[in-house]
Amino acid sequence: MQCYTELVPPTAVTHAVSLPFLAPDANNLVVAKTSLLQVFEVRGCRPTASSNGTSNGATSAGPKFSLIGEYPLSGTITSLASVKTLNTKTGGEALLIASKDAKLSLVEWDPENHRISTISIHLYEGDNIISQPFGPSLRDCDSFLTVDPSSRCAALKFGAKQLAILPFRQLGDELAEEVEDGYDADMADAPPSAGLKRTATNHDMEPEARLTPYKSSFVLPLTTLDPALTHPVHLAFLHEYREPTFGILSAPLQPSPALAEERKDCLTYTVFTLDLEQRASTNLISVPKLPSDLWNVVPLALPVGGALLVGTNSLVHVDQSGRTSAVAVNEFAKQASNFSMSDQSGLRMKLEGCGVEMLDPRTGDLLLVLNDGSLAVLSFKLLGRNIGGLTVARIAAEQGGLVNASAPSCLAALADNMVFVGSEDGDSALLGWVKDTPSLNRKRSHAQMLGQDAAAEDAEDAEDVDEDDLYAPSAETVKRTASSSSQSAADAASSYHFALHDALRSLGPINNVCLGKATHANAGELELLAGVGRGEASRLAFMTRAILPTAGRTSQFEGAKKLWSASVQPKQEADGGDGGYDNLLFVYDGEQTKVYDINDPTVSADEKDGLRKSTANGYVERSGTEFEHDGETVAIGTLGNGTRLVQCRRSELRTYDYDLSLSQIIPMADEETDEELKVVAVSFCNPYMLVIRDDSSIQVLKLDRSGDVEPLDDTESSKANKWLSGCLYAGSMTSGEVCAFLLGEEGALHVLRLPDLASCYHAPTLPFLPPVLSPDTPLRRGGRETLTELLVTDLGTEDVKQPYIIVRSSMDDLTLYEPFNYAAETGSSENAGFSTLRFRKVPCPYIPKYDESIDNEDGRPAPLVSAKIGRRRVVYIPGRAPSFIVREATSLSKVLGIRASGVRAFSALNRSGCESGFAVINDEGLAELMLPPVSTFETGWSSHGVALGEPPQEVRFMAYHEDRGVYVVATCRDVDFYLTDSDGNVEHEGITLRPQIPQFTLHVLSAKSHEIIQSLEMPSSEIVTSLKVMTLEISEHTHEQKTMVVVGSAAQRGEDMPAKGAITVFDIMDVVPDPERPESGIKLHVVSREETKGAITALEAFSGGLIGTAQGQKIMIRGLKEDGSCLPVAFLDAQCYIAQLKTFLRSGMWLAGDAWKGLWFGGFTEEPYRLTPMGRTQSQMEVMAAEFLPFDGQLFIMIVDAEMDLHVLQYDPENPKSMSGQRLLHRSTFHLGHFPSSMTLLPSKLAPFAEQPLVNGHADEEDAPPSPSDPESLHHILTTFQSGAIGLITPVDESTYRRLSALQTHLTSILEHAAGLNPRAYRAVESEGFGARGVVDGSLVQRISELGAARKAEVLGRAGADAWGLRSDLEIIGGAGLSYL
Predict the structure, then answer these.
(1) What angle do CA 1342, 1345, 1347 make, to 5 degrees?
(2) Which of 246, 333, 641, 1125 has its CA 20 to 30 A from that of 1145?
(3) Where is composition skewed (Acidic residues) in this entry (predicted)?
């Protein structure tokens, strides 16, 4: 049994749509990433154009994305569309989601729960759908969704020829139904009109009076519309029609490039109008003999109208009357089609996979985003109501035409002149554009140019046209501008200026991965290197699961236990600006608190006065002040913008001036009994400070204008409860006012407004951890969580911050809540203060590792600390493995560990040389650290990218050379292809737009500086298929072994010429280094190059220092000789091309997979050399990735095929069904939903499930972990995907499987699943009788934290699990054993 867990969600954007989702005037963007749905809003200023035509707002400081919510879906999203339905909860638009296997989900935003809500789900599969008995299956056919511009209906094309129509209710539909039922609209007692009925919200309507926003859907075979619609290509609903009308591009025969001459111009564009009541259609126009390479229908609104047909070589416009205009964008358009078109072949454009979006609705200009990411503008020549021609012009680089480097997968136009370019090949970009206006004259209407008489004549003509054409536009539409601007299209394109505002970073597609050692990592710590992206959007991604801070200087402070930094300055300097750098450091060593000046490290300590003792690092101890050194210091902070320093001691507060002269002493005593109280916790928020004392009472103090800190008078609200924890907060949640957020004795949340300490908010259900927290949430019995700490703070970047409530339980679990506003009486989400405030629980997977050594002297655990680190607001989690809670603007909050051991204390530190950094006390003393400036944390991993080459080249393969500490990387760039015959003659055809092939280059990259040391270009037309670093035997006599770089390649010489390959072995030799680059003292040296008759498709290291190769249709084992030859010593005839070749440790076992016959499993022996097949799969499958997985004395083989299904096979020769091992037993099948790119076997630092010693509920890593080379130890398989996702496959024992499977079953029925999709149906594979049995969906099990405390305890009880055991299980399946990454 196994468990699959998604460590990194998909990051490549597949679909996007812009719509007012959260409110009628909202500017939202909904993005689909394969199986992840994200809702964004765009925050920032609106870009404007200056008087000289340049952009003022299109800069990097412009609009930014802000994530509202993300929702994993149990399905693969195939399309998104917006629908204007009646009576949505927010008044905005609804979202229609099409998923794989013909499913439609209609969702809207739920302001009451601050998340998406599913209205309905429609399934068009099963026995009720008639399909061809011998036709393609549903999953083999493309499906696409289109929505009528007036939101009257939606159409989903699925299967080979099926069209599902989903009508939506419109204003007046109920009135028409009532008249049909016998009502008289003229009677006084007639029911209220539909218009009045629809103005009421769903909240005000009775449940029985609510009507669904949709009507009954129906399915039509396309051949019923027209028998010629046998091969549909694409369809879309059109604008400006009175009834739902769509245009469809189809052919009577399948278009085929191989039959270009016989099937030239075989496409037909047909326009149908739908009668939704009669479920009938009418053919309006038909345009035959269109170019066969057309593939997309883009509907156009006025002033252009009609539809744009996009092909690979040309663009064709068809207006409402069937008139066509076309333009050729490359030289092949005239060869591929006889269709009449204007010639712009000099553009040399390739329109495969391009994106089209409306740029300027006033002129009808369209934006083209080509497959290489470059931008172009398509302009129309308007001649009255007709189109006089199409003109395409590229956007120059100086105007921002190259700001985007990724191929588009989707485009979405947003408000304020912005366009979103989604991509599956790299980062997705938010582009802003402005248009030069000085040279443009404002166009006048006919009435303005010709007078009122001419306007009247136009109106009469329009009425005549309307009578002749039933589907013609209205008279008002006909009176649009009849003349075009005098600018040419090239001038129009030059008037646009584009700039990059923001980007959604992506790790997709992941081409390949390898493990390497980070530059400043400790022993045993590694990093994951991945080649991500395609084309010029590709880069090397250095990834670690923990943050690797940039190390600064280290200082020795004997016995230091606590530290604080502060910026203290005179009032004159504080009034003049911000606080600036920190200038004081306070260190408590258990007996005394010492004060140090934080000096510029460039200033010598000898320059300081004699009263100060200097450490060896620039910290100078300050003496001779009135600061109280003796005794324990609880906290140190500042008030009054740094003009007043406050020292919080156990029994008193002391305030100091900027020069540390004593100002006040405020004792902590009970006002009634004068009993001395001790300070437990302190929170600062200028000009207030909150003190929590050991009798669970609070005291709030305020800095007055005179500079004195005075306590506020207690009120009934402040004395009405005993307080466990609390903090002060002022921000967007409180409209800038300072409020005290307190945790009551029973765990309730209380908010007191300052300075009057009046209660303004009370949520008694906080200890139940409900999904939505509000004052009116009903109380439940049982399941109460014991809460110990409360922190309210902002998380995020400087541009986009979000307030959160963070609560910690007695088990050290963290729960995050984000605020939102909702008024139950009106259904409004406007901010009306605390009266409408609610909180939504935010997913934040975190497995705590508690350490008693960091507890305070009073036994309380070290508190959470909010700090500003590296231009971010973060929360520091103290513990055995310290962590940060970080939030990027485009992601939810993530918990990332810090690679720092033995940390006892933490403090933010901002000084010259360590700007916005932090300091920790560890075993080595005080270490100054900073967040890596180039790293990002959206995925929950720390990652940063490095582009190779200029322009950047696509990264295909990489390997780490441990002895030299370098990476060897294979990259490629596209170059023109010239066919070379067998005699070496190059054929030069008379074409300028030549086909392109990849030209590969090997780079030696320093693991320390990430700079290229050497670049070596491979021979022309030679494609690298595999790159490995292996330990090879270099001598037959001495059996000496050495680490070498082995490259397998295939020669691409043409489709009718036999393939050739080569094996090249490189050694890294020493050379004289560049004095300015010490790491440049190495270079690649060719030791051996063996050319083969067949292509080398895979490489693998075999025992004995041998090279395993997949050569042509054979598997060969080669050995390196002294003379530089690489000769075969054993071979096996596979009769197919091998795509995957793997070996299992040093056991001699190997597996080989291909895309046709499946997978072979065998063994290799050295004396004599022999390859022996021992088993194979029972059925054929397209093996895309495969890997061994040992567990508990058994050997499993994991396979991911082209259908994205995970197959679990077992080699068990003792089982009778295996025929003595000749057949691999098929144990389970599990649908992953992502296309795989690699599988890597990794050892775990944790013991197997049955052997885990539990320490406070988590597996103990301090015990000696099993050896990574020991098959009996726990292993994982790290799986990477084209979507940018990273998954982990973990073997589990029988008891753990039953426990997790029971949890999965209960959570499937309890949790709310986004878009109404069923996770059980998503993971099961219909062709296999056992479905997904045997594999647990770990991502679903991790969602147990979404439940409230009572519901969670109930589910655990039903599954026979407990909280500590669940924590241990989640730790292992979540990859805690990969702590070395």
Answers:
(1) 125
(2) 1125
(3) 455-467
**Alpha carbons 1197 and 1315: distance in angstroms, whole number:** 34
The answer to whether 530 and 500 have CB atoms below 8 angstroms apart is: no
The Cα–Cα gap between 344 and 314 comes to 9
Single-letter code of the amino acid located at 67: L
Give, in degrees to the nearest 5, the angle at Cα 1017 between 1014 and 1019. 155
Contact 1073, 1012 (CB under 8 A): no
Q: Which residue has the tokens 């998503």?
A: 1322
Query: What is the rounded CA–CA span in Å between residue 1042 and residue 1035?
Result: 10
Q: What is the pLDDT of residues 709-735, one digit of tens each?
A: 999 998 888 888 899 999 999 999 999
Count other Cβ atoms within 10 Å, centred on residue 1195.
18
Helix (H) or strand (E) holding 332: helix 332-336
C-beta of residue 783 within 8 angstroms of C-beta of residue 1354: yes
Three-state secondary-structure class, residue 236? strand
CA distances in angstroms from 928 to 551, 554, 619, 918, listed in the order given: 6, 6, 12, 6
The tokens describing 482, both together, are 């009849």
Pairing of β 1335-1337 and β 1060-1070: unpaired
In whole angstroms, how far apart are CA 595 and each of 619, 935, 1214? 9, 34, 73
What are the φ/ψ torsions at residue 901 (nearest 5 degrees)? -100, 150
As a whole number of angstroms, the distance between CA 1019 and CA 999 comes to 8
Tokens of 1099: 């490489």
Helix, strand, coil in percent for the chain, rounding step 5: 10, 45, 45
The whole-angstrom separation of Cα 18 and Cα 412 is: 6
At residue 1338, the 3 state secondary structure works out as helix
Question: Are the CB atoms for 1160 and 1073 separated by under 8 Å?
Answer: no
Measure the CA–CA gap between 626 and 639, rounded to whole angstroms.
18
Q: How far apart are CA 774 and CA 520, in angstroms?
A: 47
CATH numbers and ranges of domains, the chain: 932-1133 (2.130.10.10)
pLDDT at 444 over 80: no
The answer for 1228, left when phi > 0, alpha when psi is -120 to 50, beta otherwise, is beta
Non-local CB neighbours of 714 within 8 Å, separated by 6+ positions: 671, 699, 757
Q: Could you give the CA distance from residue 1274 to residue 1280 in angstroms, rounded to a whole number? A: 20
pLDDT in tens, 1244-1272: 988 776 565 544 444 444 444 445 556 56
CA atoms within 13 A on the CB side of 1364: 10
User: Is 818 in a helix, a strand, or coil?
Assistant: strand
Tokens 């009880």: give the residue. 1357
DSSP-derived 3-state class of residue 1035? coil
Strand partners, 588: 562, 593
CB 875 within 8 A of CB 885: yes
pLDDT at residue 1147, as a whole number: 86
- Among positive and negative, which fits the CA dihedral 438, 439, 445, 451? positive
Provide the 3-class DSSP secondary structure of residue 397.
helix
CB neighbour list of residue 604: distance below 8 Å, 6 or more residues apart: none
Instruction: Please identify which residue in the block is written with the tokens 């952009």.
Output: 55
The CA radius of gyration of the chain, in Å to the nearest whole number, is: 35
Secondary structure element (H or E) that encloses residue 463, with its range = helix 446-468
Tens-place pLDDT, residues 445-493: 444 444 444 434 444 444 443 444 444 444 343 333 333 333 455 677 7
pTM of the model: 0.91
